[in-house]
């Protein structure tokens, strides 16, 4: 048997060569390498196969523009196959709307004009093809998990999405994803070397002019296509728009069509008329201070009444508590701006009273405008009347940039999961909503006056497992033949059942508190269940449900309401008239030019000259919010026999991290009173803090400082300015993204 001998590497010799390497040797090496590469290329050019292919290459170069467009059509077709999850649907789209198909192919074709700028044209074509197919694949996969397609605004929440990969991908899918990406990258790199180079004369100025020409031609063609109604620049329903107008156009539109363009007729005189000479900026109420109730809004993740699905049956009513509220209090359908995703956009409409229909397709104002600029909201409207304003969410504080956004909206406090001791999670790893109740009550206890509390739940978040993960479900679902779909529905419905328990327990806790209170429960969007309009009693995919519970005797008034009107509606029932946009809804909701004037108002406030504030001044100029409502504190430090330390104190959570002299230490959270340090060596004079830390190491709140000396900790005198800065530490962070 032949033995394989492996030559022992000459490590000593290798380092000897490196040590004695001269500049001339390096130059000689690269010269020899270049000559060797030229010989190889010359051999390829003179090979028998190359000579046979030369006439074909010349023909393809001569008519390369035609072949580029043909390649663009092929790529466009496969992108639609991936996006629609069906070869036949893609074929129907291509043959049914050929103008739209060819228009999208022209967009892809125009990007191929870049190849004439480089010699490695084969590689450039491959790179562009991979790029377009990658975008189409992202869209196809996202549409498996949600109804909203992939758009440019998703890139702005990419960090959030990366933080949730464990919730959307199982281990096998993650492995396949990583292997696939690595394989494609290696193949593309190999084509850099094997793709060959263009040997003719380069005309880069002409090529650059060609790029400008084809991009300009696409821009002109787009305007023509919009004028001829081949496509549209308004996506009333982004999911349907992608189906009607194709992925390449819609995705590109979501890149360049953001914010609110200046509406026709915008002027100071127009805004004076719309604002009734500034009257809508007033802040007043017909109730006395003692008569004003607490106002609590609870946004339930992916919630709607499951009995709205016509073919779904249940072993018992999954929402008995909310059903009772529906019968006794004001309720109806709740029109939201998205389906299957876009939680932050429903949230934005509710808090600001602004409609998403005027923004770019698929845009997240939380990631564009509100992340960096202040704007009035329900928080500012109610704080002007003496309310405290608190926000809560049992998910990461940086998710959807909420830490920055809520600060810019004028909230006093924001309690995220970093300040909650979350012990219970769903089988998919989301925090259960019961943790919100004690934190809501705790937030309300921070003020003596009435409170506005905005709460975002997360328990109902998708995606929903097709395998059976609940062994003995309280609610058994039937009416679905496919076992995987039935398991997904059963999981979702039982999570909704738990959300209903949370709603009932919250109402009970508020009743026991004995303060006049109004609570609004609503769903942010339908779940990602592949529902179609025909499946629902309302025949509309953008309807969830809402109910307004109260203990102050409000008259039951059932009606359907869009998300951007709900706050104004509640304010009006309470005789509260505060907040520019909310006042506008109250005064103009039934007027002829209501929506067109609303667009003008939104533009003026966000992107215009803010004529509406010229007399009253802006309601908010800077944020003042603190993260959480309680400081962590250290009561004792204990040295263990193994040389480690245990820190004892109060209000610790899993996101409490120990800092020594400003550097984060490796620590283990045991419970809300103990954290262990494993690899830290303390010396006299070290300064210790326990801080609440979010993603990207964002410090949300700092504790007091403690000095270590002779095995003990001594609390250092507090600097009031430093304490306030610590509570608002996140405001000055350069990043607030989930990573």
Description:
Helix content is 43%, strand content 14%. The protein has 739 residues and is an alpha/beta fold. The longest helix has 31 residues, at 483-513. The chain starts with 10 loop residues before the first helix and ends in a 12-residue tail after the last helix. Mean pLDDT is 88; it is low at 731-739.
**Strand order, largest beta sheet:** 11-4-10-9-2-7-5-6-13
Low-confidence stretches are 731-739
Shape: globular
Largest sheet: 9 strands, mixed
Task: List the SSEs and their pairings.
Elements (H helix, E strand, L loop, with lengths): L10 H9 L3 H23 L2 H15 L1 H21 L2 H10 L1 H14 L9 H25 L6 H5 L1 H6 L1 H4 L2 H24 L9 H24 L10 H8 L1 H10 L11 H7 L8 E3 L8 E7 L12 E2 L5 H9 L1 E6 L7 H10 L25 H6 L4 E6 L8 H7 L4 E3 L20 H10 L5 E6 L20 E2 L4 H31 L3 E7 L19 E8 L10 E2 L3 H8 L2 E3 L1 H9 L5 H13 L19 E2 L5 E7 L5 E6 L5 E5 L2 E2 L2 E5 L2 E4 L9 E7 L5 E3 L4 E4 L2 E4 L4 H8 L12
Parallel strand pairs: 2-7, 2-9, 4-11, 5-6, 5-7, 6-13
Antiparallel strand pairs: 1-12, 3-8, 4-10, 9-10, 14-15, 15-19, 16-17, 16-20, 18-19, 20-21, 20-22, 22-23
Helix pairs in contact: 4-5, 4-6, 4-7, 5-6, 6-12, 7-11, 13-14, 22-23, 23-24
């Amino acid at each position: 048997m032949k033995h394989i001998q492996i030559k022992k590497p000459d490590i000593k010799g290798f380092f000897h060569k490196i040590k004695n390497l001269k500049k001339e040797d390096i130059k000689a090496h690269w010269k020899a390498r270049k000559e060797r590469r030229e010989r190889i290329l010359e051999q390829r050019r003179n090979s028998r196969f190359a000579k046979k292919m030369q006439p074909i290459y010349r023909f393809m170069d001569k008519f390369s523009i035609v072949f580029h467009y043909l390649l663009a059509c092929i790529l466009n077709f496969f992108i639609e196959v991936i996006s629609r999850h069906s070869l036949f649907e893609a074929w129907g789209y291509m043959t049914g709307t050929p103008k739209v198909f060819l228009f999208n192919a022209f967009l892809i074709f125009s990007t191929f004009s870049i190849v004439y700028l480089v010699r490695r044209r084969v590689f450039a074509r491959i790179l562009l093809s991979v790029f377009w197919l990658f975008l189409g694949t992202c869209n196809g996969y996202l549409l498996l998990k949600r109804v909203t397609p992939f758009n440019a605004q998703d890139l702005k929440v990419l960090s959030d999405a990366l933080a949730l990969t464990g919730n959307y991908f199982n281990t096998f899918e993650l492995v396949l994803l990583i292997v696939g990406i690595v394989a494609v990258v290696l193949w593309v790199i190999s084509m850099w070397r094997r793709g060959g180079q263009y040997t003719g004369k380069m005309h880069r100025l002409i090529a650059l002019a060609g790029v400008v020409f084809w991009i300009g031609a696409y821009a002109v063609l787009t305007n023509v296509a919009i004028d001829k109604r081949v496509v549209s620049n308004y996506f009333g329903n982004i999911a349907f728009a992608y189906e009607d107008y194709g992925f390449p156009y819609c995705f590109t539109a979501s890149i360049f069509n953001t914010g609110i363009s200046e509406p026709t007729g915008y002027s100071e005189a127009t805004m004076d008329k719309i604002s009734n000479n500034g009257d809508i900026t007033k802040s007043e109420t017909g109730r006395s201070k003692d008569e004003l109730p607490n106002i609590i809004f609870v946004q339930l993740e992916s919630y709607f009444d499951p009995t709205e699905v016509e073919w779904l049956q249940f072993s018992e009513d999954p929402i008995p508590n909310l059903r009772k509220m529906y019968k006794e209090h004001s309720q109806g359908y709740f029109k939201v701006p998205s389906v299957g995703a876009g939680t932050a956009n429903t949230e934005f409409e509710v808090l600001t009273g602004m409609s998403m229909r005027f923004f770019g397709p698929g845009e997240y104002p939380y990631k564009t405008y509100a992340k960096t600029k202040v704007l009035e909201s329900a928080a500012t409207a109610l704080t002007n009347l003496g309310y405290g304003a608190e926000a809560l969410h049992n998910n990461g504080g940086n998710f959807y940039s909420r830490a920055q956004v809520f600060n810019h909206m004028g909230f006093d406090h924001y309690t995220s999961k970093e300040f909650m001791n979350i012990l219970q999670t769903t089988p998919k790893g989301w925090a259960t909503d019961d943790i919100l109740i004690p934190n809501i009550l705790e937030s309300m206890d921070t003020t003596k006056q009435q409170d506005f509390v905005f709460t975002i739940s997360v328990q109902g978040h998708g995606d929903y497992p097709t395998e059976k993960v609940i062994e003995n479900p309280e609610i058994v679902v039937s009416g679905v033949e496919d076992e995987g779909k039935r398991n997904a529905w059963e999981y979702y419905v039982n999570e909704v059942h738990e959300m209903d328990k949370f709603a009932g327990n919250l109402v009970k806790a508020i009743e026991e508190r004995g303060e006049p209170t109004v609570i609004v429960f609503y769903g942010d969007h339908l779940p990602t269940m592949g529902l179609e309009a025909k499946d629902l009693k309302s025949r509309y995919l953008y309807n969830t449900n809402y109910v307004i519970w109260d203990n102050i005797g409000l008259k039951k008034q059932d009606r359907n309401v869009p998300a951007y009107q709900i706050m104004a509606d509640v304010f009006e029932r309470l005789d509260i008239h505060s907040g520019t946009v909310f006042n506008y809804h109250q005064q103009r909701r039934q007027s002829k030019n209501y929506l067109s004037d609303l667009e003008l108002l939104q533009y003026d406030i966000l992107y215009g000259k803010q004529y509406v504030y010229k007399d009253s001044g802006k309601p908010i100029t800077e944020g003042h919010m603190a993260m959480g409502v309680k400081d962590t504190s250290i009561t004792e430090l204990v040295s263990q026999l193994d040389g480690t330390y245990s820190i004892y104190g109060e209000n610790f959570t899993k996101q409490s991290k120990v800092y020594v002299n400003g550097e984060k230490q490796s620590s283990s959270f045991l419970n809300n009173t103990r954290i262990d340090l494993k690899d830290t060596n303390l010396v006299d004079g070290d300064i210790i803090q326990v801080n609440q830390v979010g993603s990207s190491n964002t410090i949300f709140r700092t504790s007091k400082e403690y000095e270590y000396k002779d095995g003990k900790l001594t609390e250092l005198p507090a600097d009031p300015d430093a304490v306030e800065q610590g509570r608002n530490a996140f405001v000055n962070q350069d990043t607030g993204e989930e990573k």
